[in-house]
Amino acid sequence: MRCKLAVLGLAMMAMPAQAQRLLTLEECRHLALTQSKELSITKEKALVAQSTRRAAYTSYLPELTLKAGYIYNPNPIQLLSEEQKARLGQLGTGLTSAMGNNPALAQAAATIAAKHPDMLPLVNSLSGALTPMLAQSLNQVGGSLVEALQPETKHIYGGVLTLTQPIYVGGKIRAYNAMARLGESLANEQVHAKEQELILSTEQAYWQVVSLVAKKRLALSYVELLGRLSGDVDKMIAEGVATKSDGLNIAVRLNEAEIALAKVEDGLGLARMLLCQVVGLPLEAEIRLQDESLEELPVAELRPTLDLADVLERRTEIKSLRLLEGIARERIRLVRSEQLPTLALRANYMLTNPNLNNGLQNTIGARWNVGLVLQAPIWNWGRGLHKVRAAKSEARIADYNVALAKERIELQVSQATNKYRDAYKHLAMTLKNMERAEENRKSAELGFREGLMPTSRVLEAQAAWLSAHSAKIDAQIDCRLAEMMWRRATASL
User: Model-level pTM?
Assistant: First the structure.
């Protein structure tokens, strides 16, 4: 019965699953690169850096700003006191009263009348009629002055349009733009690094699934072998040429094989879920990989060692650290520019009510001006010098980071190359060992059927065959993983 179940399991693995989605390695890579939320976040950061670079360029261009305001004054501004208003309103009355009480004027009128007696009636008539008229006219003039000197300041509003064009800012704008360009390049390198990381994780998860499928197929084959052996031993026990101990020993081995098969199936389910998570598919998605049906996993040939200098130029870490080094140097220029004078052209166009150009009348008045604004630091107790020294130290740290990264990458490339070669050598040895184990198993099974070998020797040969096949699968996967790590170390992904 167990033998039939093993054969059925092998047949089911060979049948195409209608509800499963068949994926190739390239499709898994594509899904990982398009569905990864972490990569999407990194790409958005690259867009932020791009927008920052474009915003930095606008610092070269003139800036136009508008400011407007409104003020409500419950107590309007009074240019005249109440006493001054009253005096101006009675300007004519006060003046004529002063004229009537002036002895010089009376003496002048008397002198005219004495010299010209015929004009006496005219002088008396003018003195009585002109004075009230003159007082009334002057009172009106005083009232007009009071009204004119009382502007509308209860509601004040205005606006100013300002144009500012930087002329010289100590190199700050150039440094800021250079830092923004380097920041954009750094963000793009981070996107590339995240893509490489995703590709590496995808391939590792992919080949892990393929490895476990191969081990499941091997475990089913081993269960099948033990099932056939158990059937043969049962017949031999019935004929009296084998003992029950032999049958129990095989049953124990068969039970252990079934437990191992269950563990492989559980591990395979988890590995598929991990692959689904990496490529952005639902964890419960039914997937099947193109390379699952391969009896022999593909192993790439050894590649020649690349030029280390070329590898360093291609590594994303070195590119990123050099960009950080450039940003640190531009920061020195930026900090130094804060200690230099700045010059800017500024023009203003202003609208106000009350009208500043027409005696604070309740109308809208316009005026404009243009000029240069110069600002220069004089003394700040050495703060700028300390900032420059700090920026220079940060630049030296960036230099040291580049040198340290080169040393680490050299070691990483050497280790990856050696591991790749060792994995390939180990695979060659496991293939030879598997051939011997296969031959030993066949010889033991043949000897058992002819009655020349005990069941213990057959079980040992089958166990050695299982171990050799499992080691071969592990060696093939190790070669694939070592190749991926070598491609990662040499920036060949």
Answer: 0.76
